[in-house]
Design a protein that fits this description.
Elements: H1 2-19, H2 28-50, H3 55-70, H4 76-100
Helix pairs in contact: 1-3, 2-3, 2-4, 3-4
Length: 110
């Protein structure tokens, strides 16, 4: 069951991650960026808590954070929130890898 949930969430995150570079150059883009950030603020703790071995989901979230951070329409406040989410995703990634392989050193972050 957990693998099915991870696959479903992964598919959604992949679609969003692929669409993020298309956002920009218009007034509503800051609003769209804000909506994605709000969703990430809700999803990241949920994934880290409920699906702690879902390293591929955390990697997708990190990709989305990087894409939004690079978007010139991201406001300074949004960038700060993304910076905090990036730190949270690093911690979740380390915890996830520790569950997958408790004897291994922390996995490198991207």
């Amino acid at each position: 069951m957990e693998q099915a949930i991870i696959a479903a969430i992964g598919a959604i995150l992949t679609i969003v991650e692929q669409a993020l570079p298309l956002i920009g150059g218009t007034a509503p883009s800051t609003s769209v960026i804000g909506s994605v950030i709000t969703a990430l603020e809700k999803w990241l703790p949920l994934i880290a808590t409920e699906l702690p071995s879902a390293t591929q989901l955390i990697a997708s979230i990190k990709g989305m954070i990087a894409s939004l951070s690079a978007n010139p329409d991201t406001t300074p406040a949004q960038y700060e929130t993304l910076r905090q989410l990036d730190a949270q995703s690093d911690a979740a990634n380390d915890a996830a890898w520790a569950k997958v392989n408790p004897d291994a050193p922390p996995a490198p972050t991207t």
